[in-house]
Amino acid sequence: MNAGQNGPMRRAPLALAVPGLLAVLLLAVPLLGVLVHTPWTHLPEELGAPGVLTALRLSLEVSLAALAVAVVLGVPLAWLLARVPFRGKAVLRSLVLLPMVLPPTVAGVALLLGFGREGLLGGVLDDWFGVTLPFSTAGAVLSSAFVALPFMVITTEGALEGLHPRYEEAAASLGAGPLRVFWTVTLPVLAPGLLAGAALTWARALGEFGATITFAGNLQGVTQTLPLEVYLLLQDDARGATAVSLLLLVVAMAVLVGLRGRWIGGAARRPAAPRPPEEEPDPPAADGTSTDADPVGGRGDKAPPAGADALAASVVGAVEAELTAAPGTTVAVVGPNGAGKTTLLRALLGLTPRARAERLELGGADVTRRPPHRRGVAWVPQDGALFPHLTALGNTAYSLRARGVPRAEARREARAWLDRLDVGHLAERRPGQLSGGQAGRVALARALAARPRLLLMDEPTAALDQTSRAAVRRLLRTHLAGFDGACLIVTHDPVEAVSLAGRVLVLEDGRAVQDGTPADVARHPRSPWVARMMGRNALAGEAEGDTVRLAGGARAVGASPVAEPGPALAVFGPEAVSVHRERPAGSQRNVWRGRVREVTALGGRIRLQVGPPDRRPTTAPRRQASPGATQEDLPEPGVVAEVTAAAAAELGLAEGESVWVAVKATELALVRL
Ligand SMILES: Nc1ncnc2c1ncn2[C@@H]1O[C@H](COP(=O)(O)OP(=O)(O)OP(=O)(O)O)[C@@H](O)[C@H]1O
After folding, report:
1. Cα 490 to averaged position of ligand 1 atoms, centre (Å)
2. Among the atoms of ligand 1, which is closest to the Cα of residue 339?
3. Residue 273, Cβ neighbours under 10 Å: how many?
4. Is the pLDDT confidence value at 12 over 60?
5. What pLDDT was estimated at residue 279?
6. Which residue range forms the structural domain that includes residue 568?
7. What DSSP line would sit under 325-389, residue for residue?
8. Could you tell me the distance, in angstroms and rounded to a whole number, from the CA of residue 330 to the centre of ligand 1?
9. Which ligand 1 atom is nearest residue 344's CA?
């Protein structure tokens, strides 16, 4: 046990140690009893007795047949429970689990009442098809399947719930067709859960006794399986019973040791020192080819026609946007939560029914009708979605292998990509052994290795701390500089937008509200949200000439008039706002009254959030404005001002203080909406 992880090792308190040891004794004494009483010298002949061999053969046949029934019926049921929403799911799940807690003899009685000759369905089976289940081998299979099925269903359901569809979607975006995705991602990720479930189901079926004897009886060679043989032997051959019990015990123990606790959640844990596979296995070439060579994303592409846009798309549905980008352009996609940024990316990938690209041209090639894996659009999802069963190297080589690059060459190229992103030394690690930042770099290496025409990144630095964020931004800048496709980066970080992107696309409520250079968007934000994201102030109102009438009646005056009257924003930077305790004299055209709501330090400067003054009557005497001064109050949401620490100290600025704020008309831009 790792003392560092589980707290310091202490001597166990006696009050816990004694019952704990008694519990171990309770479990161990019967097993020891079997071992001690086993007739070791006569074991071969006891186990080789004809009755035992017949029972063993029958047990294997019955338990494997029950396992087959449980897999064929239980896996689809688990899939429904895990993936399809429907009413009454909790009741159905309880029904599935019932045989686990039902006394097996009661299960046998229930089976008789259901499938027996006089039973609900048994009568029909008998009359119409001449099928009699009780006291037949098929009946023994049925009763074993009845009690073992829940194990298959719950383990498979757990495994399916652990498999996020993002893995399969990411694989498609890396050029893998549906068959390859199934063999190289779905199955390997599910395999440990499915195998654990199958092993437990089989072990339960092998040990089944109560339901079988009640429903199918104890007929030698027909229904007399090993557990029943033990029961029979116990009457007159105790040595034989002990020998057969040992056999069943060894089988059960072997299954449990093989599972090593995976069933109770161990499957999700990473082994301490994994021997990772080199990379994903080749899927069988059912479609006559082992690869999904992609004429757009792959090497051997024809050069794009001269002058063609790297990206020309029109997206419709839950998100509506027109996009064009010249080769080498990075577009930052910004917008409030729920604006549709991820949906836009998924529409370009062809991965959502909620929105779709009505037209998608990449480097002059029309890929609108192509499935996701043939579009040449690679994707770095928010959490990276690295395949958990592959190493960093296997992940990075995935798209190369999907394109048919030979294994050794794919590994070499993948390693070079990992080196370029400074994670070459982690090539043999699995995703579970990487930090968030390292996983982000590997996910980026994996996407770049796919050599896409269009690279989509969903908040690539969101999970990182400030230092790694800056480092990954630098890396991105370097790699995007050499990338001649188009790149869309979803971000909430204005620094990322400004430093990485040549263009900013603003989405709000599923619509593109602005598309321009970062400087343009910062200077003339077309919504208060964008202005705030860019660190600017934006007061909304109705403009006419050079004046905006703000909500609440105050006015803002800009340097140049709007072309025509209508809704507009008055936009200015926090550094353009001066703060005063008295109404400032002088020529400033924009002077508003407010109250300091929040004071924060920002480097050597102080950032003030100034809101409208309180409307409720106050007992404190109001400062008298100079005669003739306007008494305009700041409207909601107020403004952000930035002043030097010295000025803040001199003015005695603190939360709750009344202030005046002023902005020169020359510093204020009017943006018509
Ligand atoms: N599968 C879905 N079914 C129905 N609505 C969905 C689905 N996925 C997303 N939405 C809705 O579509 C809208 C856009 O979602 P999307 O994930 O694209 O937003 P986003 O801009 O990426 O947001 P965030 O910044 O929070 O990641 C949201 O209102 C969201 O609730």
Report:
1. 13
2. 21
3. 5
4. yes
5. 44
6. 536-616+629-672
7. E-TT-EEEEE-STTSSHHHHHHHHHT--SSEEEEEEEETTEE-TTS-GGGS-EEEE-TT----TT
8. 23
9. 18
188 and 316 share one domain: no
521 vs 516: CA distance, rounded Å: 6
**Higher pLDDT among residues 523 and 544, named by residue:** 544
Find the DSSP H helices in 129-186: 137-162, 165-173, 178-181
Q: Within a 10 A sphere around the Cβ of 71, how many other Cβ atoms?
A: 18
pLDDT at 393: 96
Same domain, 574 and 451: no
- What is the average per-residue pLDDT within 303-332? 82
Does residue 339 line the site of ligand 1, with CB under 6 A?
yes
Q: Is the CB of 340 under 6 A from ligand 1?
A: yes
Determine if the peptide bond prior to 381 is cis (ω within 30°): no
Q: Is 332 found in the same domain as 241?
A: no
440 lines ligand 1 (CB under 6 A): no
Which one has a higher pLDDT value, 573 or 297? 573
Structure tokens at 140: 């023994």
- CATH classification at residue 235: 1.10.3720.10
Give the type of residue at 262: R
Which protein residue's CA is at the shortest distance from atom 5 of ligand 1? 354
The pLDDT > 70 percentage for the chain reads: 88
CA-proximal residue: ligand 1, atom 9 (nearest): 343
Is the ipTM here above 0.85?
A: yes
Residue 440: predicted pLDDT: 87
Q: Report pLDDT digits (tens) over 70-118.
A: 999 998 899 889 878 899 999 999 999 999 988 988 999 999 999 988 8
Give first-to-last CA distance, the chain, whole Å.
Answer: 64
49 secondary structure, DSSP code: S
616 has pLDDT over 60: no
Domain membership of residue 414 (yes or no) is yes
CB 337 near ligand 1, within 6 Å: yes
- Residue 478 contacts residue 429 (beta carbons within 8 Å): no
Ligand 1 centroid from CA 621, angstroms = 50
Q: What is the dihedral of CA 419, 420, 422, 424, to 10 degrees?
A: -10
Segment 54-75 shows an average pLDDT of 92
Domain assignment of residue 100, yes or no:
yes
- What atom in ligand 1 is closest to the CA of residue 382? 27
User: Do 407 and 279 form a contact (C-beta atoms < 8 A)?
Assistant: yes
Q: Is residue 292, in this structure, part of any structural domain at all?
A: no
**Sign of torsion, CA 254 259 264 269?**
positive
Distance 529 CA to ligand 1 centre (A): 18
Which of 164, 333, 342 has the most ligand 1 atoms within 8 A of CB, as the residue to mutate?
A: 342
Ligand 1 atom nearest residue 318's Cα: 12
Residue nearest to atom 14 of ligand 1 (CA): 340
Report which protein residue has its CA nearest ligand 1's atom 24. 337
Residue nearest to atom 2 of ligand 1 (CA): 354
Q: Which of 3-12, 164-173, 468-477 has the highest mean pLDDT?
A: 164-173
The response to whether residue 341 sits with its C-beta less than 6 Å from ligand 1 reads yes
